[in-house]
Structure formats: C-alpha cells, structure tokens
Design brief:
Number of domains: 2
Largest sheet: 4 strands, parallel
Number of helices: 7
CATH architecture of the largest domain: 3-Layer(aba) Sandwich
Low-confidence stretches: none
CATH class of the largest domain: Alpha Beta
Helix content: 40-55%
Structural class: alpha/beta
C-alpha cells in the first residue's frame, strides 16, 4: 500500500498492531484523526498514556483499578464470601454487565495451557488459595471458558481448593443452550451438557 506521507505510514503501522485492526482500518482511523482538532488527538494521546502508566491491578482480585483496591472489592455491599473466578478482565466485565451477581471476583490472568508454556505458577492461583483460606470464603464460582484449557484450569483449581478447604462449596457457571436457540441446530456437546446440567422446575 502506498502512503502519501511517511508520518501517515508510521501511524498506520502502529494502529494496525491493535487486535482486529487491519491496515485499511488503520488508514481510515489515521485520516479521521487528521481531520479532528489538535486538542482531540492530544487528549486521546494523553488518555492512552495515562492509562498505560497509571493503571494498576487490585491487590485482592487482580482486576484493573485506579486504586490499591478496585471499586468492587472496596464495596462493602458486595458479598465478600462469594468469589467468582474468571480467566480475564473482559470476562469480569461481561458478568458484571448482567447485574445478576453481587459477589466479588478473582482474575487469573489466563488459563493453564501446557502447550503454550503456561502453568499454574504463571497465573494468579496462589493468591486465590490464600484468599479463600484467609477471608472465610464460602463459595467459589468457576466462570471459565468451555475449552480444553478452561476445563484443565477448572479441574486444577477444584483439586487444590478441595485439598485446602474440604468444606468449601465449588460451583461452575451453567453451560447450555442459548436463549432463543433451536435444539436441532445446537451442537451435541452443548446439548449433552444441557441435559446433564438440567434444573428442576418443581
């Protein structure tokens, strides 16, 4: 692709490093920014720099935070004895946006994946075990992806938590058919898990 300016080419090169942004989209974004007031691009650059430099991670749950404790962990109205374990911060945001959960979270920052060289030591697992033991946690909900890595991580966590706290309740999010889906178009694994994880209506 030919560019009218080396500066535009450099901007496209950097923007296209972002996930989901190809060179064409990066070029459109660059041209759009050129049309904006200089204050806009200065504010954008400042916001990005501040985010990168000043953002920290909550000491309890490892979510993104502006303070030592995030807004959820420091909220006394949340059920601190109920901990939802997620792989990434994006998963936390997805659950939080449902407005159906009032406990706290624990972000692993990944999943156990031996193929990729990621073992338990690379994840925030030790802090979860300590938290469960020291904070009188009553239930841990494993909200992990329905993948081989997710299942491996869930199995590992369940075993470690049960060894340390035999009376701790460990649950997982329901896995089944999406609302509005037709049974005949549902894959066999999802349908099978829906049957096994059925709920009582009585």
């Amino acid at each position: 692709m030919n560019y009218p300016s080396k500066l535009i080419e450099e901007a496209v090169k950097e923007l296209s490093k972002l996930p989901g942004i190809g060179k064409k989209t990066a070029l459109r974004l660059s041209l759009h920014l050129l049309k904006q007031d200089q204050n806009f691009t200065a504010s954008l650059a400042h916001a990005l720099q501040q985010m990168r430099v000043s953002t920290q991670y909550c000491k309890d749950c490892h979510a993104i935070s502006d303070q030592i404790l995030c807004k959820i962990c420091s909220n006394h109205s949340r059920e601190s004895t109920l901990v939802c374990v997620v792989a990434e911060i994006g998963d936390l945001l997805a659950i939080e946006n449902t407005a159906q959960y009032r406990g706290v979270y624990h972000v692993l920052n990944g999943l156990v994946s031996p193929i990729d060289g990621i073992g338990p030591a690379e994840l925030n697992i030790e802090s979860l075990l300590n938290r469960a033991k020291e904070r009188d946690v009553q239930e841990v909900i494993l909200a992990l992806p329905s993948t081989m890595e997710g299942d491996t991580t869930a199995y590992y966590l369940t075993r470690k938590l049960q060894e340390q706290l035999p009376s701790l309740r460990i649950s997982t999010i329901a896995r089944g058919i999406a609302v509005g889906s037709e049974l005949e178009y549902t894959d066999e694994v999802t349908l099978g898990r829906s049957i096994i994880g059925r709920i009582s209506l009585s």
